[in-house]
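[09:14] KT: can someone run the structure on this one? pasting the chain below
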Amino acid sequence: MSFELLTVPCLSDNYAFLAHDADTKATLLVDAPEPEPIISKLKEKNWFLTHVILTHHHWDHVDGLSKLLEYYSPQIIGSSSDTKRLPPIHLPVGENDEIKIGNNVGKVFEVSGHTIGHIAVYFEESKLLFSADSLMALGCGRLFEGTAGQMWHSLQKLSTLPDDTILCSGHEYTETNSNFALTIDPKNQDLLTRHKKIKKLRSEGIPTVPSIMNEEKNTNPFLRPWCKEIRANLDMIEATDEEVFTKIRELKDEY
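[09:31] RB: done, structure tokens below
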């Protein structure tokens, strides 16, 4: 039985995710930006929180946990390499470890770049990738701790997942990311079509997250440093993919 997924808007532009296994009644929360919207959704659905994955230590992904623990007693799961900065966790995990939530099994990816010790988790049966601030809708996380090389390596790992993977990333940054992407890939017809769709969704207050992996492969410039058009626009025809990625990240930081 695949997860039932709920996207929960939190704070000004964060997302938390609830994934429920109807057979076992297990309910997973991925990240805890603030407690109230999450508790509200759990009560609305009559779900009891059993597991929490914390993707990284930043406050806007963990600060809601303490309040949640006043109501529930979930197993807390987080990176084994970042236990000193995360809230107390019960299950430390690392690259290629498996996490079982009800009948759903998730594979852990270490995706350092945005932070050191950031993790992403892929649940194959449900086709869900929880990537938080590593791979994002039309973007990737800012490099607060890691290097561009680390982030590029992390994104390469995630981009090997199937095209129909549902990408659950951590923020509503997609419209700004889309505007930036067009500055370096302005003739990409898939991107132009997606840009129009994003503007319409946001004008109606509708989330653009989750997205689909195939869509990211075709339009997200951070997954496409090999693209000849992007390379030509950046005057980097002979550069390595990592060098082009690094330049794209620098340009986005300045955008």
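[09:33] KT: thanks! The mean pLDDT is 97.
[09:34] RB: yep, looked fine to me
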